[in-house]
Q: What sequence folds into this?
């Protein structure tokens, strides 16, 4: 079995009867379905003609939205969750607060639904109804401060999140023939200029640092062309500042989650950008790193901890939540996307 075959197998095995993709089947803290992670899984499987699985996820996401429609109706931030149980419920986090307001999840889902439709799989009426609710919500609240894709810095406006919202509204405008969403997306694009420092996009509106998720802006969200100078400069900074000692890519400098090691999906993102800009040699090197991260059980972890940024923060996280999440379906999805981007 090839690594590609194995990644497909892992993602399909992690899909619940509801259509939800579990973030990680063996890591208790990740026993949920994130719309963002699921959208990436559905997109990746579509590249390998697994349309039934992708379609089941989109139907699950639509049901989650419609079952909680009251959260999307007000023209104010009411914080609909981006994380659901595998049967589509919203679960009380209990005694330990856990951030769950991430607008990138809804933007990414709309983008992925539009991508699914572009490949000849028109959305159902239920999906269109849900897309209409989400698009209306994002038109009103798309520039709001929220937690980023790492569930951190909830009081900031994050550049990758803004890009996800723009891509989602652009997708909604196409799916729904909705001029209001197109206008809103154009308006939000103007805000991206406030997230540029010294010719590069930055992680959020209160820092000069970069984050690997900034690569989304061009690959695959198409908010900024990959060859635009600001995007080229951003990708170069990510390569220069976030590449770790073994060739993997950190999420961002100063990360302490499980020590802040080299992440599989961020390495795949940068490899994908290299592939799309014609640097196949570097893209293949990133793919080799990702495939070398497969464990003896032939699974991809969330991150490696051999060379963390903060060695003293590995053990406390292991003691709190157990070993690094493995297999992480999002890691397998990004492996699939990078592999598909590189010709044989």
A:
């Amino acid at each position: 079995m090839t690594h590609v075959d194995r990644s497909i197998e892992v993602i399909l095995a992690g899909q619940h009867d509801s259509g939800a993709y579990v973030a990680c089947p063996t890591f208790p803290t990740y026993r949920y379905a994130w719309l963002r992670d699921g959208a990436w899984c559905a997109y990746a499987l579509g590249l390998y003609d697994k349309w039934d699985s992708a379609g089941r996820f989109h139907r699950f996401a639509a049901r989650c939205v419609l079952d909680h429609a009251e959260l999307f109706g007000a023209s104010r931030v009411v914080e609909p969750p981006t994380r659901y149980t595998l049967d589509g419920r919203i679960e009380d986090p209990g005694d330990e607060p856990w951030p769950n307001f991430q607008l990138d999840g809804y933007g990414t889902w709309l983008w992925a639904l539009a991508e699914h439709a572009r490949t000849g799989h028109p959305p159902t009426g239920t999906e269109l109804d849900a897309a209409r609710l989400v698009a209306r919500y994002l038109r009103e609240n798309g520039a709001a401060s929220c937690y980023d894709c790492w569930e951190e810095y909830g009081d900031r406006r994050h550049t990758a999140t803004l890009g996800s919202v723009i891509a989602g509204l652009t997708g909604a405008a196409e799916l729904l023939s909705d001029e209001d969403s197109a206008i809103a997306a154009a308006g939000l694009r103007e805000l991206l200029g406030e997230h540029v420092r010294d010719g590069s996009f930055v992680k959020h509106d209160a820092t000069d640092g970069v984050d690997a998720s900034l690569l989304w802006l061009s690959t695959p969200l198409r908010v900024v062309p990959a060859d635009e100078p600001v995007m080229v400069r951003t990708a170069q900074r990510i390569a220069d500042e976030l590449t770790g000692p073994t060739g993997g890519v950190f999420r961002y400098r100063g990360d302490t989650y499980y020590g802040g090691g080299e992440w599989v999906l961020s390495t795949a993102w940068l490899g994908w950008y290299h592939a799309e800009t014609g640097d196949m040699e570097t893209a293949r090197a990133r793919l080799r790193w990702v495939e070398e991260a497969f464990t003896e059980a032939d699974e991809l972890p969330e991150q490696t901890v051999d060379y963390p940024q903060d060695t003293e923060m590995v053990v406390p996280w292991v003691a709190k939540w157990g070993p690094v999440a493995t297999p992480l379906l999002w890691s397998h999805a990004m492996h699939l996307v990078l592999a598909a981007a590189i010709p044989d």
Notes: The longest strand covers residues 33-34. The beta strands are 33-34, 83-84, 196-197, 200-201.
